């Protein structure tokens, strides 16, 4: 187990942090629960399947359950992405020692997390599995129990919705600050 | 390929899921179409932004400890049953001996209880507890 945990702890933590938007302590608690489940359910793993697929099935299920328990899902309706032009996003942010830059980076991180949390569960999971594990569509399909065509659609919608959510968030903040 | 045709393949192109020929065609379109290229650029920025700084902290040791507690807890559960069975057998034997005044029976039944447990749980059941103690030592050393 030591080797397994050492190898997988960072990808698991990254997924949990982004999926639930929680702090490091909470993410570590959940990651611990993931590895305990791996140990408890170890006989269910079939060597014919990729271990990462099985592991992240456990991770995504745990995150889904935790989100449901906490009632954190703010919005079940996916946002449409109509604006194909420049959504006036300034996503670039250089974090230097400048306090102003740090404040901007912090604000951007908040916007990013809010945008991520607005995504429907499957879109968010597909996006994070792709981003943190660079999983194939086939693997993601297996974890989310959907087809590979559905994964294609989920990922495109996730990215477009992220951009739309970020733009919407920026507009809202702009209105509030005026 | 026009923008509409590209649109249905953009995700697979970005994620490296297209075959070589189609991927080249999409690439050629992107080189000439600023609008489609801009979308890809935005997706790349999203991916960059999703990068997360992590502190795994003591996750490894805390997980191993939790795992050991769970393993040990499981073994202790069997141990408790074993202990209860031994005590029950012993008490039964003692009360029997008090009634019938045959003290030798106590020893015989208790030993019989232990061998019964050996047969029920298998010879590895008790040895496993020693192994877990070894695991706990290992974690103790790691923490030190």
What does this structure look like?
The complex is a heterodimer of chains A (178) and B (144). Chain A has 7 helices and no strands. By secondary structure, chain A is mainly α. Chain A has 2 domains: 1-77, Rna Polymerase Sigma Factor, Chain: A (Orthogonal Bundle); 118-178, Winged helix-like DNA-binding domain superfamily/Winged helix DNA-binding domain (Arc Repressor Mutant, subunit A), CATH 1.10.10.10. Chain A starts with a helix and ends with a helix. With 144 residues, chain B is mostly helical. Chain B has helices at residues 3-7, 10-14, 20-32, 34-49, 59-100, 104-121, 124-143. The interface between A and B is medium-sized, with 41 and 29 residues.
What is the mean pLDDT of chain A? 81
**How widely separated are the two ends of chain B?**
64 Å
What portion of residues of chain A belong to β-strands? under 5%
**Count of distinct structural domains of chain A:** 2
The count of strands of chain B amounts to 0
Q: Note poorly predicted spans of chain A.
A: 73-96
Shape descriptor of chain A reads globular
**Level of helix content of chain B?**
over 70%
Put simply, the count of helices of chain A is 7
What is the makeup of the main sheet of chain B?
none
Helical stretch tally of chain B: 7
Topology, number of strands of chain A: 0
> Looking at this structure, what is the CATH superfamily of the largest domain in chain A?
RNA polymerase sigma factor, region 2, helix turn helix motif
Range of strand content of chain B: under 5%
Biggest interface between chains: A-B, 41 and 29 residues
Percent of residues in helices of chain A comes to over 70%
Structural class by helix and strand composition of chain B = mainly alpha
């Amino acid at each position: 187990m030591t080797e397994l945990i050492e190898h997988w702890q960072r990808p698991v933590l990254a997924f949990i942090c982004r999926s639930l938007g929680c702090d490091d302590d909470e993410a570590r608690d959940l990651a611990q629960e993931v590895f305990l489940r791996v140990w408890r359910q170890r006989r269910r793993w079939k060597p014919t399947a990729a271990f990462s697929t099985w592991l992240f099935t456990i991770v995504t299920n745990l995150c889904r359950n935790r989100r449901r328990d906490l009632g954190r899902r703010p919005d079940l309706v996916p946002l449409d992405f109509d604006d194909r032009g420049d959504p006036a996003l300034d996503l670039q942010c250089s974090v230097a020692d400048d306090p102003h830059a740090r404040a901007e980076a912090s604000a951007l991180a908040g916007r990013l997390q809010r945008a991520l949390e607005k995504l429907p569960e499957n879109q968010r999971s597909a996006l994070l599995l792709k981003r943190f594990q660079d999983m194939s569509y086939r693997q993601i399909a297996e974890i989310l129990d959907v087809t590979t065509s559905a994964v294609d659609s989920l990922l495109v919608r996730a990215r477009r919705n992220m951009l739309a959510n970020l733009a919407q968030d920026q507009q809202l903040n702009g209105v509030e600050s005026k | 390929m026009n923008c509409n045709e590209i649109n249905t393949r953009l995700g697979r192109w970005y994620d490296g899921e297209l075959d070589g020929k189609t991927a080249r065609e999409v690439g050629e379109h992107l080189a000439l179409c600023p609008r489609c290229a801009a979308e890809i650029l935005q997706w790349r920025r999203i991916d960059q932004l999703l990068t997360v700084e992590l502190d795994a902290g003591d996750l490894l040791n805390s997980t191993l400890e939790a795992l050991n507690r769970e393993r040990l807890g499981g073994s202790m559960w069997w141990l408790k049953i074993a202990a209860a069975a031994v005590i029950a057998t012993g008490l039964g034997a003692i009360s029997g001996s008090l009634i019938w005044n045959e003290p030798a029976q106590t020893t015989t039944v208790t030993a019989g209880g232990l061998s019964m447990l050996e047969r029920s749980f298998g010879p590895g059941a008790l040895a496993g507890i020693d192994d877990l103690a070894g695991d706990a030592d290992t974690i103790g050393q790691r923490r030190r």
